[in-house]
């Protein structure tokens, strides 16, 4: 079986190709555009693939993504609907996302941002002791990544709840489900963490109506997709005092363009889509095991439901 590796985001695709070739000795793994004849691949390994992937590889039977979110792939023109898509489940990302959320939660709740300002002023000043009940965290998305974040924050004794489509939540975490559960979930949440997939249902979900329903002095952490957020609503919420701050890892346009109002906003923390990177070793092991299951005709986990879009 022939496998093509097609990612425009990778500067060193050879590293991935070699790792996959080693893990799949019975197959031929080649990089997109490596000079050998295209057209014979039955399996594609993709992240941000070239626009003509499906045109030039008409024999594809399945596509595996090197990341968790499949929104961009689902939007690709010319993608044959009959070719299933299988996403990465964790791949080393979950623990990094837990670290990311913990960092910004602690910065807000323990006042570390303010202590940095005090140091710059040569000022020795203590803030009030923390009351954990004042910092209820609400996680939108209780999937592979959201569940790990929820468990990590709960282990530090912050009140944590999760919101999902079905209402499922990790054991020991309060769960809310669907449109009916959203108001109650937001009403108990001060630190809102978004780890939802981007779908027709979730696009623009981080908007004024959501910020208004949160507890006062709220804080937003968006580590899912930029298009979940209505940017003007966030700026208005920050400037109008509805939210105290936000940490943003993802943007509607990436890289975030120079001069964008987010760059200089004093209450925004910006990072360049690094909250959870797919780590080569874990990713290759997981996808190779899935490819072998596919080859044996067994069920493959992480298959995208075309209706749900995740
Ligand atoms: P997942 O395992 O598929 O979990 C998705 C969760 O979202 C599930 O709990 C699901 O509910 C919930 N959900 C989906 N649609 C919903 C809706 N309309 N209303 C309420 N809840 C809904 O996904 P994952 O692996 O955790 O990844 C989540 C997202 O993180 C990815 O899609 C990607 O966009 C983003 N991501 C970002 C980075 C980064 O570096 N910033 C890295 C990796 C991933 P059910 O439990 O009921 O199904
Ligand atoms: C990264 O954003 C991913 O979806 O894996």
Distance between the termini: 27 Å
Number of beta strands:
12
What is the domain tally? 2
Uncertain spans, ≥5 residues at pLDDT below 50?
none
CATH topology of the largest domain, by name, is Rossmann fold
CA radius of gyration is 21 Å
Small molecules (ligands, ions, cofactors) in the structure: NADP nicotinamide-adenine-dinucleotide phosphate, glyoxylic acid
Amount of beta strand: 15-25%
- CATH H level, superfamily name of the largest domain: NAD(P)-binding Rossmann-like Domain
pLDDT averaged residue by residue: 97
Please, how many helices?
11
CATH-derived architecture of the largest domain: 3-Layer(aba) Sandwich
Summing up helix and strand content along with how strands pair, one would put the structural category as: alpha/beta
**Portion in helices:** 25-40%
CATH class of the largest domain equals: Alpha Beta
The helix/strand order is EHEEHEHEHHEHEEHEHEHEHEH
Using brief descriptors, characterize the structure shown:
310 residues, alpha/beta, Rossmann fold, 2 domains, seven-stranded parallel beta sheet, five-stranded parallel beta sheet, 11 helices, 17% strand, binds NADP nicotinamide-adenine-dinucleotide phosphate, binds glyoxylic acid
